[in-house]
Amino acid sequence: MGESEGIFIMKSELFMHEMTETSAVFGRKAKTRVTFGGNGAYTDGTHINLPAMAQGKEIDDVSIDVMRGYTDHEAGHIRHTNFKEVKKFVENECTNPDGSFNNLLKSLGNAVEDVWLERKVLKEYPGAWKNLSAVASAVNGEFKDMKDAAKIAKDWMAVLPVAITWEGRKDYKEIKNNDDCLNMLDDDLRERLKDWVKEINRCKSTKDNHKLAKKIHDEVMAEAEKRKPPEPWGDIGDGEGGGTPDQDPPHGDETNKGDGDEKVNENEKDDAKSEPMEGEESKEDEGGDGKGKGSPDGEEDGDKEDQPDGGSGADDVGDKEDGDKPEDKGDEDTVGSTGSWGEHEIQTGDLSNAVDAIIAKSESLKGDGSDYKVLTTKDDLVITRHHPKRKLMMPDDEQHGRDEYERKLRNMTGAPNVIRRKLERALSAKMNRGWEGGREQGKLDTKRLVSAFNGKPDVYKERDPVPEIDTATTILIDCSGSMGGSKIRLANEIAIALAEALERTTVSYEILGFTDRAIRWGKFYRDKVKGHESFSRVEGLLHYVFKDYNESLLRAKPALGGIDCYADRRENVDGEAIQWASRRLLKRHEKRKVMLVLSDGAPAFSCCVGKGYESYDLMSAERHCRYAVDEAIRSGIDMIGIGIMDSSVKKFYPDHVVVRNLDDLQKTVISKLAKALLGERYEVDNSELMKVRDAVA
Description:
Blueprint: E1 2-4, E2 7-11, H1 12-21, H2 23-27, E3 33-36, E4 42-43, E5 47-50, E6 58-60, H3 61-80, H4 83-93, H5 103-124, H6 129-144, H7 149-154, H8 156-169, H9 178-182, H10 187-201, H11 206-226, H12 254-286, H13 299-303, H14 325-332, E7 335-336, E8 339-340, H15 351-362, E9 381-383, H16 398-411, H17 415-431, E10 435-439, E11 443-444, H18 449-453, E12 460-463, E13 471-478, H19 486-503, E14 508-516, H20 518-528, E15 541-547, H21 553-560, H22 563-566, H23 574-586, E16 592-599, E17 607-609, E18 612-614, H24 618-634, E19 637-644, E20 656-659, H25 662-678, H26 686-696
Parallel strand pairs: 3-5, 9-15, 13-14, 13-16, 16-19, 19-20
Antiparallel strand pairs: 1-2, 2-6, 4-5, 7-8, 10-12, 11-12, 14-15, 17-18
Helix pairs in contact: 3-5, 3-6, 3-15, 4-11, 5-8, 5-11, 6-15, 8-10, 16-21, 17-19, 17-25, 17-26, 23-24
């Protein structure tokens, strides 16, 4: 996080974490989640998705506000929109008897709902105006910059949904492009918009919003009917206009008859022309704003699966016979005093378009994250001792887990005691306090008795202040498949030995693990990435919290005892695990922060390269791991890589050591740990400690 030329900058991975962590606040529901994945922004009623972002990109403040604004808006839908009513509205009101779909009516329902719910969001969180203004300004700017914006603004049937949002948001502080858009509209439409928005303020529910949308739709269709140009009239004859004598112009001579033929051809041409346009509108509806639009999982999208491409909504007006359909379709193509209506695509003011544009822009921004981008964060999982799926990391019978812990502790003979004693000696060296003499208060210094007899005031001494060991430590364990067998058993023993040693100090510590969900989810992800662009990771992450900072070792023993037995061992996404552990560690109040990463090699996980599934991209994985380590060090964390029977850690951690057994841990790791804990180098004489170990053994 920083500043550049007065513009607030945030790293993309930090922004993604911020949005994910605050999802419960956005939705005010326990199950609400904000995730990043795929290529589109959407919500489905409990889940808000933003497009996948590459890590290491520097995102400016405007882009951040736009994406926050979209999230605030969609969270408003989650809190206030009745999605059951939305489903009924789409199925019963927006689907015409002939099976065609009324895109205009649905878009009006969305627009009215958007304005209404944003009123509620601003009442709940007055500060949300900044974010909502940012995303609305971006959408307004997109319309303003359109080539045919002026013409579209005169087409009521095209501009009406987004025009309602312009009028509804015109009082937002610092909103941009809004007045410019409103000024493109007819004066008549602007006056009507004011009345309609006043009615929105009186709505109490989603159902009320849909009733108002239907009313607005009917008023506009009636206005379109009034503005229809008069039909050409001639002498009475046998024309081919297809109407009744009371309605159709007379046809007498050949000229008039020819005109009648020409008119029929024009109608046929209009009908042929309108059909593709209607299909486009139906397609556009799939990517609409809010309430699940654009989402493969969205509630409204699910409702639209059985809806064929259809008309724009004119067929809903009045009681029509089947033979009236061509005339109804002509209602959408009416020509008023200001130009054609129904010629252009319906403008919904889809807020997700602004987010998608921001993500597309971010791809070209500078960054040092090696363009690392995941398919989705939706399936990432963190398991704790209290998680419903805790059996993935510990036995159901906690007593069995404790027994395993104690058994492993006994089998380690005196190693934990030796490690603890070494650590205690290092810490006690820091704790030893001396006396400082020459003070005018404190304890009488016996070395200054003569001076005291002579009346000197500075004959007292005081203890040196105790240096505080203000350190938090994270132990992060690779639980991937390559760690199976003796490696994971050694890592388990190291975790137990360090836990036993640190528990008797004032050092706060937690023990974490990491792998992914590759084995069980492999085929699912292979199918999911078909047709997509390249993604650095396609599987969900699986992270474990064996012991957190606030837990005692006694409570954590069942989980720690089963690290080598119950932790699922698949693939290892080291870079993201380090980022996750770093974020947890950086929340701690301690001044010094240390992370020990126990791993046997380089990161390895499945990816999608060039719109096709590819097993591994090791170079990208290693670049991202180095990036994560460097970022952690820059943030103030002392990183120590502990290679479990493997020296690959030297490629990623400037400070590293290889451990092949517990003796190596006693000889090398403890000195490094003590130095990191205290900020100084402590060389401990091992000879006495080896005697202690041998005596215990």
